[in-house]
Specification:
By secondary structure, the chain is of the alpha/beta class. It has 2 domains: about 1-20 and about 65-105 and about 155-233, TPP-binding domain (Rossmann fold, 3-Layer(aba) Sandwich); about 20-65 and about 110-145, 2-Layer Sandwich (SIR2/SIRT2 'Small Domain'), CATH 3.30.1600. It has 9 helices and 13 strands. Strands 5-4-1-11-12-13 form a 6-stranded parallel sheet, with helices on both faces. Strands 7-6-10 form a 3-stranded antiparallel sheet. It has a two-stranded antiparallel sheet with strand order 2-3. α8 links the parallel β11 (about 170-175) and β12. The model has no long low-confidence stretch (mean pLDDT about 90). It binds zinc ion.
């Protein structure tokens, strides 16, 4: 069981829990343009609107729960004895609430705030505003949602890059295949590795995978992970 497994998750895994995604065709996220609510420029233009937008998303987390796919991953992490890296593009905390640990959130997290002046990051469940104080420097006005916006560099790219070189099995779950750099991971994978794409339907990068399975995440994720764990017994 000395294998290395890399799991990359995208919006598709949280969709069945009722989390709305902004990477859809419309270019809108809950009726706001992406430029307004998901870019540093948008935040500079209208920080109140951006705070209000993410405050709502953060509050909505209280009304959603993890689904079978999140639980299957958390369970897999507990019983698999090799090295396991779980990377998500999602900003919700459904993996953690299902019991996963050491989840790398490439695009940040709703329940985390970032200070724009000192880069201090803090777990944050409440509403953010211009009067939220940075706990480190006791200054107001510098706290923002710790979300990686368009034009910003995703987190943990070095960790991903390094792990991809030694991965034996790469599993991509519910990722659109069009959001880079994550969409490019499959092409950075060491050539000997096995790769499985789990998704609702084919994506632009399906042909790069050695196997593809299509269906609801809550069904195909538990089934596939069971097979994988059996294969390593
Ligand atoms: Zn600060």
């Amino acid at each position: 069981m000395g294998a290395n497994i890399f799991v990359l998750c995208g919006a598709g895994i949280s969709q069945e829990s009722g989390i709305s995604t902004f990477r859809d065709q419309s270019g809108l996220w809950e009726n706001h343009s992406i430029e307004d609510v998901a870019s540093p420029e948008g935040f500079m233009r209208n920080p109140e609107l951006v705070h209000q937008f993410y405050n709502l998303r953060r509050r909505q987390l209280k009304s959603v729960i993890p689904n079978k796919a999140h639980y299957a991953l958390a369970n897999f992490q507990k019983i698999f004895s090799g090295k396991f890296l779980l990377v998500t593009q999602n900003v919700d905390d459904l993996h953690e609430r299902a019991g996963s640990c050491n989840v790398l959130h490439m695009h940040g997290q709703l329940r985390q705030a970032l200070c724009t002046s000192c880069k201090f990051q803090i777990y944050y469940e409440e509403d953010l505003s211009l009067s939220t104080e940075c706990e480190k420097y006791k200054k107001k006005g510098s706290m923002r949602p710790d979300i990686v916006w368009f034009g910003e560099v995703p987190y943990f790219l070095d960790e991903c890059d390094e792990f991809l070189q030694t991965t034996d099995l790469f599993i991509s779950i519910g990722t659109s295949g069009s959001v880079y750099p994550a969409a490019g991971f499959i092409q950075m994978l060491n050539p000997k590795a096995r790769s499985i794409e789990l998704n609702l339907c084919r994506t632009e990068i399906s042909s790069f995978f050695s196997e593809t399975r299509f269906g609801k995440a809550s069904e195909i994720v538990p089934k596939t992970l069971n097979e994988v764990i059996e294969g390593y017994k």
